[in-house]
Every structure is written in C-alpha cells, then in structure tokens.
Amino acid sequence: MGEKSSRIQDFHKMSFEEKLKIVKEFSNLSDEEVNLLKSMGSLDRKIAETMVENVVGVMPLPFSVAPNFRINGRDYLIPMVIEEASVVAAASNAARFMRDGNGIISIATDSIMIGQIYIYGVKNISFASQIIYENKDEILKLANETDKYLVNIGGGAKDVEVRAIDTRNYGKVLCVHLLVDVKDAMGANTVNTMAEKVAPFIEKLTEGRAILRILSNLADRRIVRTRAIVKKEMLGEEAVELIAMASEIAASDPYRAATHNKGIMNGVIAVALATGQDHRAIEAGAHSYAARTGRYTTLSFWEKDREGNLVGTLEMPLAVGIVGGSIKVHPITKIALKILNISTAKQLAEIMGAVGLAQNFAALRALTTEGIQKGHMRLHAKNIAVMAGASYEEAEKIAEIMVNEKNISFYRAKEILEDMRKKS
Ligand code: NAD
User: What's the CA-to-centroid distance between 326 and ligand 1, angstroms?
Assistant: First the structure.
C-alpha cells in the first residue's frame, strides 16, 4: 500500500469508470464497495434510522477523491464530500506542489479532550479548588469506571484542572476540567458520560451545584501541526512574496482571516464529511482556537524561508475519530476510511490538517495571481446553467459555451438555453 503512488496525471480528465478503477486498485476495494460507490447514494432505511430520528429520505452529496497527496512520507488518495465546485480540483492541484521528499509533514498530539463541570454556589473558590485537586485520583477513578474499554486500550481520564470563571450576574463559577484521552474516537459521548458521572462527587466536595456537564469543543489539547514547502522554482519568486504578504494581511485583519480560514475548512470539512465526522464540532473548535488570544486570526501562516521557498504552517484542533458516532454505521464512511487505509484517529487528524493546508495554498495562489473567479466559475458554470433552467445534459453544453466565451453568468446561460431550445 505504502509504495503505491497517488500522483496521477490527468485524473480529472478520466471517465467515471476509469477513476473508480484507480481508486479500487489503490485502496483494494471489493466489488461490493465499488458497486456501493457506483450506486450514487443509496442508503438502507434501517441504517438511516439507526443514525438519526424522523427520517423521510436521504440526501446524497458527491463523493470525490483528490489524488497527488503525499503526507508524512506516504501517498494518499483523499476522499472528499462537498457541494462546492472547485474545492476538490484545487486540493488535487495544490498537493502536486507539496510532494517533494516526505511531502506534507503533519503531527497530531494525543487525543486529549476536555470535559467541563461548572459548579455554582461555591462559597470559597480557592479552598474548593484545593479540595478538588486533593481528590484528583478519586475523580479520575470514578470517571474511568464509565468506559472500561477505553481504559484497557490506554485511554481514559488522565488529569483534572480547576478554573474560576467570572460571570456578569452570578459572580464566580467554579469550572472543573477533566482531561480525557479518547484515543480513536471523537470522544464527545465518552467525555460527557464521564462529566455526568463525576459531577455529584464534585458537588459534594465543593458544596456547590453542577449546572453544566459536557465537553468543550475548544479542543486545544488535541492539536494538529502541519507544515508544507513549495519550492520557489515551481511557484515563481513573485508568487512566494505575494502569498506571504497575503498571509500577513489575513493574520492582521479578522475580516480577511475569516475567509482565509474558510479556505482551510473547505478541505478539512470535505474530508470530515466523507469520513463521518461531527463537522460542527470541528468548525466550533477551529474558530474558537483562531480567537483564543482574544483576537480572531488565521489558523495557518505562510512565509519565505532562507532559500526563498514558500513555507506554510497550520495549527488547529481536530477532534476526529475512526470509531464512534456514525462512523462504523454508514457504509460510505467505512469506504472512505478504507481508501485512507489508516488505523488511528491521530492519522486522520494529520491527513485533515494536510488537506486544509493544501486547500489554503490553492486559494492563496489563485487569489494572488489570476484571481479566484476564473478557475472557480469555470467549474461552477454547470451549476449556473442548471439554475437557469437547463437539464443536466443541456448544462454541459451551455457551460462549455460560456467557458469558451469567458462569460459565465446566469443571464448568459438563460440566453444560450433559449437559443438552444428554439433550434431543437
Ligand atoms: P461513541 O459514544 O459512539 O463511541 C465511543 C465509544 O467507542 C467508547 O465508549 C469507546 O469505548 C469505544 N471505542 C471502541 N474502540 C475505541 C478506540 N480505539 N478508541 C476510542 N474509543 C473506542 O462516540 P464518541 O466519539 O464518544 O462521541 C462522538 C459523538 O458524539 C458524535 O456523534 C458527536 O456528534 C456526538 N456529540 C457531540 C457533541 C459536541 O461536539 N458538542 C455533544 C454530544 C454528542
């Protein structure tokens, strides 16, 4: 598996069948798995009803793969699920620039999540904190009684921290953090169960009342750090300079930082959707981390190194799992994980960080050179044509005409459509 190259020339020009064949061979998919992908989104009703409530149908989204990724010395095809045109193309293209040596370097910390127990009505906050620390072992023991499996594989509640929070109308509230290594799960349910379990004991210790018992989505102990280099020979010296400058602007201006980070999340969330992650949790974590100093800034930074190459670094929380939630329930999610061929949640976080950074590079490169619209609108043209009332077959032709004319608009799509229909 490790020896197979994901550098696939002109993958986007291949037919659907050819693409599937490549994915099948790269990832050793079975005929059954290939047929499931080919079915374009059927989901057994029982599976849907296992996942959520009040099901009345399914809503499939395109499942794509991005070739060319090399991460930590290994080649990957990246499964991506997204509704927005050009994201997959941009990621695949960006990955080509970052393949040198071991490719993109990405390291994730252990899977430490934070469970929070907020206690109000505590008379002496500093004394109560001391008592909690003195009873740390008992708190951890109680928490770990809730998930023997996790403890057996080396995870579980590992530490306790106490904080005091100033509120506007209710004075100081005590906050106990339970630090839990959730291993290969996203961990929300695991941590929430532990927080609820230990809360009565903490109430007893502090003589206060637990008001909230749930994880924090600001998963700042579960961080991925990613680095990629783009050689100046590949990019051009001017582009290196412009991207570094664009990065500095974004870091200094929250209005730009939000869009800069959105570009990162295009990649991160597409992989999250393909692999069945709680993407709301990932978004909440990313943006709260970006604002952790009190001022919202970028999750990534681009600069010129001593040799004049472009270096990008990304740091963000990624609470992701390869077990838990609906990950082992949804059949397509299982295929996505098989395509990645990974065995830990840490690896998944590392891959998602790498895709986020590559996606970010693609956007910055387009923005600082020809502008983002040329490539984006070319790939979005078919959607515009459908919006103008074209059938999917008509849309292909209309998009081609609009791309050739370099005039991609709703108005023009309508004109061409009317013309086409008059002639036929
Ligand atoms: P879970 O409860 O479905 O799975 C966790 C279980 O998997 C644990 O009990 C553990 O024993 C078991 N497990 C098996 N193999 C494991 C391994 N190798 N590593 C770790 N655990 C292993 O899911 P979860 O991950 O605890 O919670 C995720 C779910 O919680 C998601 O569906 C998410 O949407 C939801 N959720 C999120 C929030 C939030 O983010 N604010 C709040 C509530 C629920």
Answer: 9
CB of 181 sitting under 6 A from ligand 1:
no
Cα(127)–Cα(125) distance, integer angstroms: 6
Least trusted range by pLDDT, from 38-42, 283-287, 315-319: 38-42
User: Which is the catalytic residue, given 4, 12, 24, 84?
Assistant: 84
Would you state the structure tokens that stand for residue 101, as one six-digit string?
């040596």
CB of 194 closer than 6 A to ligand 1?
Answer: no
pLDDT computed for residue 84 by the predictor: 94
Yes or no: say if 275 and 64 are a contact pair by the CB < 8 Å rule: no
Mean pLDDT of the chain: 95
DSSP 50-87: HHSSS--------EEEEEEEEETTEEEEEEEE-SSTTH
Task: Answer for the pair 401, 388: CB distance below 8 angstroms, yes or no.
Answer: no
Banded model confidence at residue 1, pLDDT cuts 50, 70, 90: very low
Query: In the annotation, is 376 catalytic?
Result: yes
The CATH fold of domain 11-107+223-367: 3.90.770
If you take atom 24 of ligand 1, which residue's CA is the nearest one?
187
Phi, psi dihedral angles at 193 (to 5 degrees): -60, -45
pLDDT score of 373: 73
How confident is the model at residue 378, as a pLDDT?
76
Q: In terms of C-beta density within 10 A (0-12 exposed, 13-18 middle, 19 or more buried), how is residue 52 classed?
A: exposed
> Is 96 exposed, middle or buried (CB count within 10 Å of its CB: 0-12, 13-18, 19+)?
middle
Give percent of the chain with pLDDT exceeding 90: 91
- Distance from C-alpha of 160 to C-alpha of 116, rounded to nearest angstrom: 10
For ligand 1, atom 17, which residue shows the shortest CA distance? 184
Any atom of ligand 1 within 6 Å of the Cβ of 187? yes
Residue 191 CA, ligand 1 centroid: distance in Å: 8
Q: Which CATH architecture has domain 112-216?
A: 2-Layer Sandwich (3.30)
